[in-house]
Each structure stands twice: as structure tokens, then as C-alpha cells.
Amino acid sequence: MSINRVIITGNLTRDPELTRSQKDMPILKMGVAVNDRRKNPATGEWEDSVNFVDVTMFGTRAESVSRFLNKGKAVAIEGKLRWHQWESPTGEKRSKLEVIGDDIELLGGRDSGRDSGSSGGGAPRSEAPAYTDAPADLPPGEDIPF
Predict the structure, then answer these.
(1) Which of 48, 63, 96, 106 has its CA 20 to 30 A from that of 79?
(2) What is the pLDDT of residue 108?
(3) Is 43 within 8 Å of 21 (Cβ atoms)?
(4) What would the pLDDT profile of 117-143 be if each residue is shown by its tens digit?
(5) Which one-letter DSSP state was computed for residue 112?
(6) Which residues contact 8 (CB under 8 A, 6 or more apart)?
């Protein structure tokens, strides 16, 4: 038996591209930067490193979520790995590993990762009340009693 499941969290490296197949199936392609920490054997210090992961989603879910995604947005993606191999125009063999996303969750605040100059696209969002951890009747500076 084989298991091919992956979960990644990170930030979109570019605005996702929504296209359609010849049979009119929505295809959403995006890049996700996933941070990692490694210990440098020479210095003994922990260093940040970034992995860049290509992600593709298919179907109506891909189409509907595309309205809410843009460069910098924090996401969690669950899916499976798929390996591609092809030959370049110069005859070199190329390959890449990508995630085929089955599910995606938007992380962070409602507008986190959104540039003020980027075109958001999609439907306007209604204003939602801000969430606070403290009950409304708790005086300022008081600790929550639990």
C-alpha cells in the first residue's frame, strides 16, 4: 500500500493563474514559499531557508477560491505529490515535483498579504465585526478569569 498525502503552509509567491482545459475544467496554478530551518554544521547556528513549491488545483473549488488569492496570501494546502518529466526544446531531460491541491485554507486575517496596489478581483466582501478575545463587558486592563 502507498500513501501520497502532503500538507504545506506558506505564502503565495505570485498571483495565481486561473485557466481552463480544452474540456472547460478550471485549472489554478500557484507558487507557495514554505519556510524551513536548518542548523548550519559549520557555525552551529539555525538558519532560515525557503522551499518554493508549485501547486495546481482543478475544478470548481479551484475556480471559487481563486477570487480570494493573491501574492503574499498565507495558505494551507492539502493534496498529493505528482512528478513530471519532459524534454526541453534543446533536448535536455527536465523534471519537477508539484503538489496537486485537493483542499486549501486561507490563513491569517481577512486582508493579510493583500497589496494595496494589487487588483483583488472577485466580489466585494461585507464588513465583519472584529474578533476580540476578551468579553465585551470586561473592564480594560482586567484579566480574563480563566
Answers:
(1) 48
(2) 81
(3) no
(4) 333 333 333 333 333 344 444 445 544
(5) T
(6) 32, 34, 53, 55, 76, 77, 99
